[in-house]
Amino acid sequence: MIIGYVFSLETVYVLTGVTLLIFALMTFADGANPRRLGSGCFWLTLGITFMFGGVAPHWLTGSLVLFLVALDGLGQVGRGRVETDTAEKAEHARRLGKRIFIPVLAIPIVTFAFALIFRGVGMDVNRGALVGLGFGGVAAMIMCLKLTGGGARALMNEGRRLNEAMGAVNILPQLLASLGVIFTAAGVGSLIARGIQQIIPADNLFLLVLANCLGMALFTIVMGNSFAAFPVIATGVLVPLIVKPFGVNPAMAAIITLTAGSSGTLMTPMAANFNIVPAALLNMRDQYGVIKFQLPYALTMWSFHVLLLWLLIKVS
Amino acid sequence: MNIQDLLKLAGVAIVVVGLALRLRTTLVVVVAALVTGLVSGLPLFSHEGFFQNLPYLTKPGQTGVINTLGKAFADNRLMTLFIITLPAIGLAERYGLQEQSADLIRKIRAATVGRLQIIYQLFRALHGLMGIRLNGHPSFVRPLIFPMSVGAAQASDTDSVEKIKAANAAAENYGNFYGQNLSTVQAGILLVYSHMQALGLTVSVVDLVKYTLPIFAASVILAIIQFRWLDRALGKMAEAKR
Fold first, then answer.
1. How far is CA B5 from CA B33, B39, B40, B109, in A?
2. Interface predicted TM-score of the whole assembly (ipTM), two decimals
3. Which residue of B has its CA nearest to A255?
4. How many CB atoms lie within 10 A of CB A149?
Protein backbone atom coordinates (compact mmCIF):
# COMPACT_ATOMS: atom_id res chain seq x y z
CA MET A 1 0.00 0.00 0.00
CA ILE A 2 2.73 2.44 1.01
CA ILE A 3 4.90 1.17 -1.84
CA GLY A 4 2.04 1.81 -4.24
CA TYR A 5 1.84 5.35 -2.92
CA VAL A 6 5.58 6.02 -3.18
CA PHE A 7 5.87 4.62 -6.71
CA SER A 8 2.90 6.53 -8.07
CA LEU A 9 2.58 9.06 -10.86
CA GLU A 10 1.65 11.72 -8.31
CA THR A 11 4.99 11.19 -6.51
CA VAL A 12 7.05 11.77 -9.66
CA TYR A 13 4.94 14.86 -10.44
CA VAL A 14 5.79 16.22 -6.99
CA LEU A 15 9.49 15.42 -7.52
CA THR A 16 9.39 17.23 -10.86
CA GLY A 17 7.61 20.13 -9.15
CA VAL A 18 10.38 20.32 -6.53
CA THR A 19 13.00 20.33 -9.31
CA LEU A 20 11.19 23.23 -10.98
CA LEU A 21 10.96 25.02 -7.66
CA ILE A 22 14.73 24.81 -7.23
CA PHE A 23 15.25 26.03 -10.82
CA ALA A 24 12.96 28.97 -10.05
CA LEU A 25 14.82 29.95 -6.88
CA MET A 26 18.13 29.85 -8.75
CA THR A 27 16.65 31.95 -11.55
CA PHE A 28 15.43 34.57 -9.08
CA ALA A 29 19.01 34.85 -7.83
CA ASP A 30 20.55 34.93 -11.32
CA GLY A 31 21.86 38.44 -11.92
CA ALA A 32 22.82 37.56 -15.49
CA ASN A 33 19.20 37.00 -16.51
CA PRO A 34 17.57 40.27 -17.61
CA ARG A 35 14.14 38.65 -17.16
CA ARG A 36 14.83 36.86 -13.91
CA LEU A 37 11.64 37.94 -12.16
CA GLY A 38 9.34 36.85 -14.98
CA SER A 39 11.33 33.69 -15.67
CA GLY A 40 11.48 32.79 -11.99
CA CYS A 41 7.71 33.27 -11.66
CA PHE A 42 7.14 31.12 -14.75
CA TRP A 43 9.10 28.10 -13.46
CA LEU A 44 7.77 28.58 -9.93
CA THR A 45 4.18 28.57 -11.17
CA LEU A 46 4.80 25.55 -13.36
CA GLY A 47 6.36 23.83 -10.34
CA ILE A 48 3.26 24.62 -8.27
CA THR A 49 0.96 23.12 -10.92
CA PHE A 50 3.14 20.01 -10.88
CA MET A 51 3.12 19.62 -7.12
CA PHE A 52 -0.53 20.42 -6.52
CA GLY A 53 -2.15 19.69 -9.89
CA GLY A 54 -3.64 16.49 -8.50
CA VAL A 55 -5.39 18.16 -5.55
CA ALA A 56 -5.85 21.85 -6.44
CA PRO A 57 -9.29 22.91 -7.74
CA HIS A 58 -9.33 22.97 -11.53
CA TRP A 59 -10.24 26.66 -11.75
CA LEU A 60 -7.05 27.47 -9.86
CA THR A 61 -4.81 25.32 -12.08
CA GLY A 62 -6.55 26.79 -15.14
CA SER A 63 -5.94 30.32 -13.90
CA LEU A 64 -2.28 29.50 -13.23
CA VAL A 65 -1.99 28.26 -16.83
CA LEU A 66 -3.34 31.62 -18.03
CA PHE A 67 -0.74 33.34 -15.85
CA LEU A 68 2.07 31.17 -17.30
CA VAL A 69 1.03 31.94 -20.83
CA ALA A 70 0.60 35.65 -20.11
CA LEU A 71 4.17 35.79 -18.75
CA ASP A 72 5.49 34.14 -21.89
CA GLY A 73 3.22 36.20 -24.15
CA LEU A 74 4.60 39.41 -22.63
CA GLY A 75 8.13 38.22 -23.32
CA GLN A 76 9.01 37.92 -19.64
CA VAL A 77 10.57 34.46 -19.86
CA GLY A 78 14.25 34.56 -20.70
CA ARG A 79 17.44 32.72 -19.99
CA GLY A 80 20.36 33.52 -17.76
CA ARG A 81 23.96 32.46 -17.78
CA VAL A 82 25.23 29.45 -15.92
CA GLU A 83 28.89 29.85 -15.18
CA THR A 84 31.13 26.86 -14.94
CA ASP A 85 34.71 26.27 -14.05
CA THR A 86 35.68 24.68 -17.36
CA ALA A 87 39.41 24.08 -16.95
CA GLU A 88 39.09 21.93 -13.85
CA LYS A 89 36.13 20.05 -15.28
CA ALA A 90 37.83 19.33 -18.60
CA GLU A 91 40.56 17.54 -16.65
CA HIS A 92 37.96 15.59 -14.69
CA ALA A 93 36.02 14.79 -17.87
CA ARG A 94 39.13 13.29 -19.46
CA ARG A 95 39.58 11.03 -16.47
CA LEU A 96 35.92 9.93 -16.55
CA GLY A 97 35.96 9.18 -20.26
CA LYS A 98 33.09 7.06 -21.54
CA ARG A 99 31.86 6.38 -17.99
CA ILE A 100 29.90 9.64 -18.28
CA PHE A 101 27.38 7.68 -20.38
CA ILE A 102 26.43 5.51 -17.38
CA PRO A 103 24.07 7.94 -15.60
CA VAL A 104 22.50 9.01 -18.89
CA LEU A 105 21.87 5.40 -19.89
CA ALA A 106 20.39 4.76 -16.46
CA ILE A 107 17.34 6.85 -17.40
CA PRO A 108 16.01 4.56 -20.18
CA ILE A 109 17.10 1.44 -18.27
CA VAL A 110 15.18 2.42 -15.11
CA THR A 111 12.19 3.48 -17.24
CA PHE A 112 12.15 0.12 -18.95
CA ALA A 113 12.64 -1.79 -15.70
CA PHE A 114 9.67 -0.03 -14.10
CA ALA A 115 7.48 -0.79 -17.12
CA LEU A 116 8.45 -4.47 -16.87
CA ILE A 117 7.86 -4.61 -13.11
CA PHE A 118 4.47 -2.90 -13.44
CA ARG A 119 3.53 -5.41 -16.13
CA GLY A 120 4.83 -8.25 -13.96
CA VAL A 121 2.59 -7.34 -11.03
CA GLY A 122 -0.39 -6.73 -13.29
CA MET A 123 -0.40 -2.92 -13.18
CA ASP A 124 -0.67 -0.41 -16.02
CA VAL A 125 2.49 -0.53 -18.18
CA ASN A 126 1.93 3.06 -19.37
CA ARG A 127 2.01 4.25 -15.79
CA GLY A 128 5.07 2.11 -15.11
CA ALA A 129 7.00 3.76 -17.94
CA LEU A 130 6.15 7.24 -16.67
CA VAL A 131 6.90 6.51 -13.02
CA GLY A 132 10.11 4.86 -14.25
CA LEU A 133 11.06 7.99 -16.17
CA GLY A 134 10.68 10.01 -12.98
CA PHE A 135 12.71 7.66 -10.81
CA GLY A 136 15.18 7.15 -13.67
CA GLY A 137 15.79 10.90 -13.59
CA VAL A 138 16.38 10.79 -9.83
CA ALA A 139 18.64 7.72 -10.07
CA ALA A 140 20.65 9.42 -12.83
CA MET A 141 21.05 12.52 -10.64
CA ILE A 142 22.48 10.44 -7.79
CA MET A 143 24.79 8.48 -10.07
CA CYS A 144 25.95 11.67 -11.76
CA LEU A 145 26.78 13.27 -8.41
CA LYS A 146 28.76 10.23 -7.25
CA LEU A 147 30.57 9.84 -10.55
CA THR A 148 31.56 13.44 -11.19
CA GLY A 149 31.91 14.68 -7.64
CA GLY A 150 30.07 17.83 -8.73
CA GLY A 151 27.89 19.29 -5.98
CA ALA A 152 24.11 19.34 -5.78
CA ARG A 153 24.22 23.02 -6.64
CA ALA A 154 26.08 22.38 -9.88
CA LEU A 155 23.65 19.57 -10.67
CA MET A 156 20.61 21.81 -10.39
CA ASN A 157 22.33 24.70 -12.11
CA GLU A 158 23.09 22.55 -15.14
CA GLY A 159 19.53 21.29 -15.20
CA ARG A 160 18.34 24.87 -15.10
CA ARG A 161 20.67 25.73 -17.99
CA LEU A 162 19.09 23.06 -20.20
CA ASN A 163 15.58 23.98 -19.06
CA GLU A 164 16.05 27.69 -19.74
CA ALA A 165 17.67 26.94 -23.10
CA MET A 166 14.42 25.28 -24.18
CA GLY A 167 12.34 27.90 -22.42
CA ALA A 168 8.57 28.25 -22.19
CA VAL A 169 8.13 26.03 -25.26
CA ASN A 170 8.76 23.16 -22.83
CA ILE A 171 5.09 23.20 -21.85
CA LEU A 172 3.82 23.32 -25.44
CA PRO A 173 3.01 19.60 -25.77
CA GLN A 174 1.09 19.81 -22.48
CA LEU A 175 -0.82 22.85 -23.75
CA LEU A 176 -1.54 21.20 -27.10
CA ALA A 177 -2.92 18.12 -25.39
CA SER A 178 -5.14 20.44 -23.31
CA LEU A 179 -6.29 22.23 -26.47
CA GLY A 180 -7.29 18.85 -27.84
CA VAL A 181 -9.42 18.22 -24.75
CA ILE A 182 -11.20 21.55 -25.21
CA PHE A 183 -11.74 20.89 -28.93
CA THR A 184 -13.39 17.63 -27.94
CA ALA A 185 -15.52 19.27 -25.24
CA ALA A 186 -16.68 21.95 -27.69
CA GLY A 187 -17.55 19.43 -30.39
CA VAL A 188 -15.04 20.76 -32.92
CA GLY A 189 -14.15 17.23 -33.98
CA SER A 190 -17.65 16.17 -34.93
CA LEU A 191 -18.00 19.40 -36.88
CA ILE A 192 -14.92 18.71 -39.01
CA ALA A 193 -16.02 15.11 -39.36
CA ARG A 194 -19.42 16.20 -40.74
CA GLY A 195 -17.72 18.54 -43.21
CA ILE A 196 -15.52 15.75 -44.53
CA GLN A 197 -18.46 13.37 -44.75
CA GLN A 198 -20.14 15.76 -47.17
CA ILE A 199 -17.24 15.24 -49.59
CA ILE A 200 -16.13 11.66 -48.94
CA PRO A 201 -18.53 8.70 -48.69
CA ALA A 202 -18.35 7.21 -45.20
CA ASP A 203 -17.64 3.70 -46.54
CA ASN A 204 -14.70 4.63 -48.76
CA LEU A 205 -11.84 3.62 -46.49
CA PHE A 206 -9.04 4.52 -48.88
CA LEU A 207 -10.25 8.09 -49.47
CA LEU A 208 -10.76 8.57 -45.72
CA VAL A 209 -7.23 7.38 -44.99
CA LEU A 210 -5.98 9.67 -47.74
CA ALA A 211 -7.90 12.65 -46.32
CA ASN A 212 -6.61 11.83 -42.83
CA CYS A 213 -2.94 11.75 -43.86
CA LEU A 214 -3.31 14.69 -46.24
CA GLY A 215 -4.98 16.79 -43.55
CA MET A 216 -2.24 15.90 -41.10
CA ALA A 217 0.52 16.86 -43.57
CA LEU A 218 -1.17 20.08 -44.71
CA PHE A 219 -1.90 21.30 -41.18
CA THR A 220 1.70 20.52 -40.25
CA ILE A 221 3.03 22.40 -43.28
CA VAL A 222 1.01 25.49 -42.38
CA MET A 223 1.71 25.38 -38.64
CA GLY A 224 5.22 23.92 -38.78
CA ASN A 225 4.38 21.56 -35.94
CA SER A 226 2.92 18.07 -36.23
CA PHE A 227 2.10 18.00 -32.50
CA ALA A 228 -0.26 20.94 -33.05
CA ALA A 229 -1.89 19.29 -36.04
CA PHE A 230 -2.49 15.93 -34.35
CA PRO A 231 -5.27 16.94 -31.89
CA VAL A 232 -7.26 18.57 -34.71
CA ILE A 233 -6.96 15.68 -37.15
CA ALA A 234 -7.39 12.95 -34.53
CA THR A 235 -10.55 14.59 -33.14
CA GLY A 236 -12.02 15.57 -36.49
CA VAL A 237 -11.05 12.77 -38.86
CA LEU A 238 -9.15 9.81 -37.50
CA VAL A 239 -11.30 8.80 -34.55
CA PRO A 240 -14.85 9.65 -35.75
CA LEU A 241 -14.43 8.60 -39.40
CA ILE A 242 -11.85 5.79 -39.34
CA VAL A 243 -11.16 4.29 -35.90
CA LYS A 244 -14.73 4.07 -34.62
CA PRO A 245 -16.74 3.11 -37.76
CA PHE A 246 -14.17 0.59 -39.03
CA GLY A 247 -13.22 -0.78 -35.60
CA VAL A 248 -9.54 0.01 -36.18
CA ASN A 249 -6.75 -0.54 -33.63
CA PRO A 250 -6.43 3.03 -32.25
CA ALA A 251 -2.72 2.75 -31.34
CA MET A 252 -1.78 1.71 -34.87
CA ALA A 253 -3.89 4.35 -36.59
CA ALA A 254 -2.84 7.16 -34.26
CA ILE A 255 0.92 6.73 -34.42
CA ILE A 256 0.90 6.35 -38.21
CA THR A 257 -1.18 9.52 -38.46
CA LEU A 258 1.30 11.39 -36.25
CA THR A 259 4.32 10.51 -38.39
CA ALA A 260 2.37 11.26 -41.57
CA GLY A 261 2.64 14.77 -40.15
CA SER A 262 6.43 14.42 -39.82
CA SER A 263 6.58 14.17 -43.62
CA GLY A 264 4.94 17.59 -43.62
CA THR A 265 7.56 18.91 -41.17
CA LEU A 266 10.30 17.91 -43.60
CA MET A 267 8.68 20.00 -46.35
CA THR A 268 7.92 23.27 -44.59
CA PRO A 269 9.96 26.41 -43.92
CA MET A 270 7.57 26.93 -40.98
CA ALA A 271 9.56 24.28 -39.10
CA ALA A 272 12.46 26.70 -39.09
CA ASN A 273 14.46 24.96 -36.37
CA PHE A 274 14.76 21.86 -38.48
CA ASN A 275 14.92 23.23 -42.03
CA ILE A 276 15.94 26.89 -42.14
CA VAL A 277 18.24 27.33 -39.12
CA PRO A 278 20.46 24.39 -40.20
CA ALA A 279 20.80 25.93 -43.68
CA ALA A 280 22.01 29.09 -41.97
CA LEU A 281 24.30 27.18 -39.58
CA LEU A 282 25.92 25.48 -42.56
CA ASN A 283 26.15 28.71 -44.60
CA MET A 284 24.15 27.30 -47.46
CA ARG A 285 23.64 29.47 -50.54
CA ASP A 286 20.02 28.40 -50.81
CA GLN A 287 18.09 28.77 -47.56
CA TYR A 288 15.59 26.22 -48.88
CA GLY A 289 18.36 23.78 -49.81
CA VAL A 290 17.57 21.42 -46.93
CA ILE A 291 13.86 21.33 -47.80
CA LYS A 292 14.60 20.69 -51.49
CA PHE A 293 16.83 17.76 -50.57
CA GLN A 294 14.18 16.35 -48.21
CA LEU A 295 11.22 16.81 -50.55
CA PRO A 296 11.39 13.53 -52.56
CA TYR A 297 12.07 11.60 -49.34
CA ALA A 298 9.17 13.28 -47.52
CA LEU A 299 6.69 12.66 -50.36
CA THR A 300 7.69 8.99 -50.56
CA MET A 301 7.44 8.58 -46.77
CA TRP A 302 4.03 10.24 -46.80
CA SER A 303 2.74 7.89 -49.54
CA PHE A 304 4.10 4.99 -47.55
CA HIS A 305 2.09 6.14 -44.52
CA VAL A 306 -1.13 6.26 -46.56
CA LEU A 307 -0.57 2.78 -47.97
CA LEU A 308 0.57 1.29 -44.66
CA LEU A 309 -2.41 2.62 -42.74
CA TRP A 310 -4.84 1.49 -45.44
CA LEU A 311 -3.28 -1.98 -45.72
CA LEU A 312 -3.07 -2.55 -41.96
CA ILE A 313 -6.77 -1.69 -41.63
CA LYS A 314 -7.63 -3.91 -44.63
CA VAL A 315 -5.85 -7.00 -43.31
CA SER A 316 -7.07 -6.69 -39.72
CA MET B 1 -23.59 24.30 -41.31
CA ASN B 2 -24.94 27.26 -39.38
CA ILE B 3 -23.10 30.28 -38.03
CA GLN B 4 -22.87 28.85 -34.52
CA ASP B 5 -21.09 25.80 -35.92
CA LEU B 6 -18.71 27.82 -38.04
CA LEU B 7 -17.77 29.92 -35.02
CA LYS B 8 -16.61 26.77 -33.26
CA LEU B 9 -13.89 26.48 -35.87
CA ALA B 10 -12.49 29.84 -34.76
CA GLY B 11 -10.06 28.05 -32.45
CA VAL B 12 -8.68 25.95 -35.30
CA ALA B 13 -8.33 29.11 -37.39
CA ILE B 14 -6.53 30.90 -34.55
CA VAL B 15 -4.00 28.09 -34.20
CA VAL B 16 -3.36 27.90 -37.94
CA VAL B 17 -3.07 31.65 -38.48
CA GLY B 18 -1.27 32.34 -35.19
CA LEU B 19 1.42 29.74 -35.76
CA ALA B 20 1.75 30.66 -39.45
CA LEU B 21 2.35 34.27 -38.37
CA ARG B 22 4.95 33.02 -35.87
CA LEU B 23 3.20 34.54 -32.89
CA ARG B 24 4.17 33.25 -29.45
CA THR B 25 3.15 29.57 -29.64
CA THR B 26 2.01 29.09 -26.05
CA LEU B 27 -0.18 32.19 -26.20
CA VAL B 28 -1.75 31.20 -29.53
CA VAL B 29 -2.65 27.75 -28.25
CA VAL B 30 -4.27 28.95 -25.03
CA VAL B 31 -6.16 31.80 -26.72
CA ALA B 32 -7.48 29.26 -29.24
CA ALA B 33 -8.61 27.05 -26.36
CA LEU B 34 -10.41 29.91 -24.58
CA VAL B 35 -12.06 31.21 -27.75
CA THR B 36 -13.23 27.74 -28.78
CA GLY B 37 -14.81 27.22 -25.38
CA LEU B 38 -16.47 30.63 -25.25
CA VAL B 39 -17.94 30.63 -28.78
CA SER B 40 -19.31 27.17 -28.08
CA GLY B 41 -21.30 28.73 -25.27
CA LEU B 42 -19.22 27.43 -22.37
CA PRO B 43 -18.84 29.83 -19.42
CA LEU B 44 -15.44 30.94 -18.14
CA PHE B 45 -15.84 29.16 -14.80
CA SER B 46 -17.97 26.31 -13.48
CA HIS B 47 -21.06 27.20 -11.47
CA GLU B 48 -19.67 26.33 -8.03
CA GLY B 49 -18.20 27.84 -4.89
CA PHE B 50 -17.90 31.62 -4.80
CA PHE B 51 -18.12 31.82 -8.60
CA GLN B 52 -21.87 31.18 -8.26
CA ASN B 53 -22.30 34.69 -6.96
CA LEU B 54 -20.43 36.37 -9.81
CA PRO B 55 -22.50 37.58 -12.75
CA TYR B 56 -21.79 36.51 -16.37
CA LEU B 57 -18.86 34.23 -15.50
CA THR B 58 -20.80 31.02 -14.95
CA LYS B 59 -23.80 29.10 -16.25
CA PRO B 60 -25.58 26.57 -14.05
CA GLY B 61 -24.80 22.99 -14.95
CA GLN B 62 -21.95 23.74 -17.34
CA THR B 63 -18.24 23.17 -16.80
CA GLY B 64 -16.22 26.35 -17.29
CA VAL B 65 -13.57 26.52 -19.96
CA ILE B 66 -10.90 27.53 -17.42
CA ASN B 67 -11.86 24.55 -15.25
CA THR B 68 -11.55 22.27 -18.28
CA LEU B 69 -8.20 23.83 -19.14
CA GLY B 70 -6.94 23.36 -15.58
CA LYS B 71 -8.05 19.74 -15.41
CA ALA B 72 -6.57 18.97 -18.83
CA PHE B 73 -3.29 20.66 -17.92
CA ALA B 74 -3.05 18.69 -14.66
CA ASP B 75 -3.98 15.42 -16.39
CA ASN B 76 -1.30 16.02 -19.01
CA ARG B 77 1.59 16.74 -16.66
CA LEU B 78 3.11 13.52 -17.97
CA MET B 79 4.05 15.40 -21.18
CA THR B 80 6.46 17.64 -19.28
CA LEU B 81 7.81 15.00 -16.92
CA PHE B 82 11.11 14.92 -18.85
CA ILE B 83 12.21 18.03 -16.91
CA ILE B 84 13.23 15.71 -14.06
CA THR B 85 15.90 14.19 -16.31
CA LEU B 86 17.51 17.56 -17.11
CA PRO B 87 19.80 17.97 -14.05
CA ALA B 88 21.53 14.64 -14.68
CA ILE B 89 21.88 15.25 -18.42
CA GLY B 90 23.06 18.80 -17.81
CA LEU B 91 25.74 17.77 -15.33
CA ALA B 92 26.84 14.90 -17.58
CA GLU B 93 27.18 17.41 -20.42
CA ARG B 94 29.40 19.53 -18.22
CA TYR B 95 31.59 16.51 -17.61
CA GLY B 96 32.11 15.70 -21.24
CA LEU B 97 28.95 13.91 -22.44
CA GLN B 98 28.94 15.76 -25.76
CA GLU B 99 32.69 15.42 -26.19
CA GLN B 100 32.50 11.69 -25.60
CA SER B 101 29.61 11.40 -28.08
CA ALA B 102 31.65 13.40 -30.57
CA ASP B 103 34.51 11.01 -29.92
CA LEU B 104 32.26 8.08 -30.85
CA ILE B 105 31.17 9.85 -34.03
CA ARG B 106 34.76 10.58 -35.00
CA LYS B 107 35.55 6.89 -34.76
CA ILE B 108 33.07 6.17 -37.57
CA ARG B 109 34.97 4.84 -40.54
CA ALA B 110 32.74 5.54 -43.51
CA ALA B 111 34.09 5.14 -47.01
CA THR B 112 31.57 7.50 -48.59
CA VAL B 113 29.54 10.59 -47.76
CA GLY B 114 26.30 8.65 -48.12
CA ARG B 115 27.29 5.91 -45.71
CA LEU B 116 28.38 8.44 -43.12
CA GLN B 117 24.90 10.04 -43.32
CA ILE B 118 23.19 6.68 -42.79
CA ILE B 119 25.37 5.86 -39.79
CA TYR B 120 24.68 9.28 -38.34
CA GLN B 121 20.94 8.86 -38.90
CA LEU B 122 21.06 5.58 -36.97
CA PHE B 123 23.14 7.19 -34.22
CA ARG B 124 20.51 9.91 -34.00
CA ALA B 125 17.66 7.38 -33.87
CA LEU B 126 19.51 5.71 -31.00
CA HIS B 127 19.12 8.93 -29.02
CA GLY B 128 15.39 8.74 -29.70
CA LEU B 129 15.33 5.15 -28.48
CA MET B 130 17.04 6.19 -25.24
CA GLY B 131 14.48 8.94 -24.73
CA ILE B 132 17.02 11.74 -25.13
CA ARG B 133 15.68 14.94 -26.67
CA LEU B 134 18.28 16.84 -28.58
CA ASN B 135 18.67 19.27 -31.42
CA GLY B 136 21.60 17.77 -33.27
CA HIS B 137 22.06 20.54 -35.86
CA PRO B 138 24.20 22.81 -33.68
CA SER B 139 25.74 20.09 -31.49
CA PHE B 140 26.66 17.35 -33.98
CA VAL B 141 25.87 18.29 -37.59
CA ARG B 142 27.68 21.61 -37.88
CA PRO B 143 30.80 20.84 -35.81
CA LEU B 144 31.28 17.16 -36.71
CA ILE B 145 29.21 15.57 -39.44
CA PHE B 146 29.74 18.36 -41.95
CA PRO B 147 33.56 18.46 -41.78
CA MET B 148 33.72 14.66 -41.69
CA SER B 149 31.48 14.49 -44.78
CA VAL B 150 33.61 16.96 -46.68
CA GLY B 151 36.62 14.91 -45.67
CA ALA B 152 35.04 11.76 -47.06
CA ALA B 153 33.96 13.42 -50.33
CA GLN B 154 35.95 13.03 -53.51
CA ALA B 155 35.23 16.55 -54.69
CA SER B 156 35.07 19.84 -52.83
CA ASP B 157 33.56 22.13 -55.47
CA THR B 158 30.76 24.43 -54.31
CA ASP B 159 27.94 22.42 -55.88
CA SER B 160 29.06 19.19 -54.26
CA VAL B 161 29.50 20.85 -50.88
CA GLU B 162 26.03 22.41 -51.04
CA LYS B 163 24.55 18.96 -51.67
CA ILE B 164 26.55 17.52 -48.79
CA LYS B 165 25.33 20.24 -46.42
CA ALA B 166 21.70 19.53 -47.32
CA ALA B 167 22.27 15.81 -46.77
CA ASN B 168 23.86 16.46 -43.34
CA ALA B 169 20.83 18.40 -42.13
CA ALA B 170 18.45 15.84 -43.66
CA ALA B 171 20.15 12.89 -41.93
CA GLU B 172 19.66 14.64 -38.59
CA ASN B 173 15.98 15.32 -39.31
CA TYR B 174 15.25 11.81 -40.62
CA GLY B 175 16.88 10.19 -37.59
CA ASN B 176 15.17 12.56 -35.20
CA PHE B 177 11.63 12.52 -36.61
CA TYR B 178 11.28 8.82 -37.34
CA GLY B 179 13.49 7.60 -34.48
CA GLN B 180 12.00 9.54 -31.56
CA ASN B 181 8.83 7.46 -31.38
CA LEU B 182 10.92 4.39 -30.56
CA SER B 183 10.79 5.31 -26.88
CA THR B 184 7.69 5.20 -24.67
CA VAL B 185 8.61 8.44 -22.92
CA GLN B 186 9.05 10.72 -25.94
CA ALA B 187 6.69 13.65 -26.46
CA GLY B 188 5.05 12.26 -29.62
CA ILE B 189 4.11 8.96 -27.99
CA LEU B 190 2.84 10.71 -24.86
CA LEU B 191 0.82 13.23 -26.88
CA VAL B 192 -0.89 10.45 -28.81
CA TYR B 193 -1.46 8.45 -25.61
CA SER B 194 -3.06 11.32 -23.73
CA HIS B 195 -5.05 12.68 -26.62
CA MET B 196 -6.54 9.30 -27.45
CA GLN B 197 -7.39 8.96 -23.76
CA ALA B 198 -9.22 12.29 -23.95
CA LEU B 199 -11.18 10.91 -26.91
CA GLY B 200 -12.18 7.92 -24.80
CA LEU B 201 -9.76 5.40 -26.30
CA THR B 202 -7.11 3.77 -24.14
CA VAL B 203 -3.99 2.86 -26.07
CA SER B 204 -0.82 1.29 -24.73
CA VAL B 205 2.42 3.22 -25.16
CA VAL B 206 4.12 -0.10 -25.93
CA ASP B 207 1.71 -0.65 -28.85
CA LEU B 208 2.46 2.85 -30.11
CA VAL B 209 6.17 2.01 -30.19
CA LYS B 210 5.42 -1.33 -31.86
CA TYR B 211 3.60 0.32 -34.76
CA THR B 212 6.44 2.81 -35.13
CA LEU B 213 8.76 -0.04 -36.15
CA PRO B 214 7.58 -0.42 -39.80
CA ILE B 215 7.75 3.35 -40.19
CA PHE B 216 11.25 3.47 -38.73
CA ALA B 217 12.34 0.63 -41.02
CA ALA B 218 10.94 2.45 -44.06
CA SER B 219 12.65 5.68 -43.03
CA VAL B 220 16.03 3.91 -42.91
CA ILE B 221 15.59 1.99 -46.18
CA LEU B 222 14.47 5.10 -48.00
CA ALA B 223 17.42 7.04 -46.60
CA ILE B 224 19.81 4.33 -47.78
CA ILE B 225 18.42 4.73 -51.29
CA GLN B 226 18.58 8.52 -51.24
CA PHE B 227 22.10 8.66 -49.78
CA ARG B 228 23.33 6.09 -52.33
CA TRP B 229 22.02 8.35 -55.07
CA LEU B 230 23.87 11.19 -53.44
CA ASP B 231 27.11 9.18 -53.55
CA ARG B 232 26.53 8.46 -57.21
CA ALA B 233 25.73 12.09 -58.00
CA LEU B 234 28.82 13.28 -56.13
CA GLY B 235 30.93 10.73 -58.00
CA LYS B 236 29.63 11.99 -61.33
CA MET B 237 30.30 15.59 -60.38
CA ALA B 238 33.85 14.69 -59.39
CA GLU B 239 34.37 12.88 -62.69
CA ALA B 240 33.02 15.79 -64.70
CA LYS B 241 35.57 18.03 -63.00
CA ARG B 242 38.47 15.85 -64.08
1. 16, 9, 8, 60
2. 0.88
3. B208
4. 11
